[in-house]
């Protein structure tokens, strides 16, 4: 029988060619062995091992591509992040510019208020690196970022699992703010979840390649968004690029980590990105002060 190059053979039915792997153990499975799961398909053994009760069931629960637990609600963390963004958006509409002054990221590290008080990350207000990533002032900006978070987060969160997905979102947001802090013009205020959204876009690219899916939709989406980033005025390209790079790096480590050292590689990659951000912020603050 002729075989197509690149196709695998089912581990239970060696005569059957397949291009699908179990979402949990990654063994090749044919249509006869494919059991639909919340993410992709699983083999009969993984489904059987994860169907017990008590402690054994918890130890053998189906796992995501990155090793996280498969959850019934694949968008729970996404919903929480959107709720935080919505709460701050409403607060800005009620309180006004005073809240923006207190929480937004300030280019160049700091500004001096009319009363002579300096404010900004360089003056110890490090929280702005994260609060600015959940802050929106204009409705179109808020809606565009929330649409991206909902659509792409719905793809990425089930693949990583809740804890890893939350780490990806926070590191992408922080890395976007960090690059904006380093490169944005002096006294420019930056805000919005764009760094986080671009981190998810980077994760989408890595996942599509890891799953051997058609990457053209993801790459086209990235190209269109980068075109908008660099052609429209008033957009913080620094936050977009910082989030995108962090999203690619963190997700690549999560889905390509060897199973025997998965936690070590994943935690190490997240820690490395965090240390790079910390080093940039410390160096920039030292230069400014």
What does this protein structure show overall?
- Helix 8 (194-210) runs parallel beside helix 10 and helix 10 (237-256) packs antiparallel against helix 11.
- Helices cover 58% and strands 6% of the residues.
- The chain has helices at 44-49, 54-59, 76-95, 97-103, 128-131, 139-160, 162-183, 194-210, 216-231, 237-256, 262-288, and strands at residues 8-9, 17-18, 35-36, 41-42, 105-106, 111-112, 118-119, 189-190.
- It is mainly alpha-helical and 289 residues long.
- It has a two-stranded antiparallel sheet with strand order 1-2.
- Mean pLDDT is 84; it is low at 1-5 and 51-59.
- The chain starts with 7 loop residues before the first strand and ends with a helix.
- The protein folds into 2 domains: 8-49, no CATH class; 76-279, Rhomboid-like fold (Up-down Bundle), CATH 1.20.1540.10.
Report a brief summary of the structure.
The protein is mostly helical and 289 residues long.
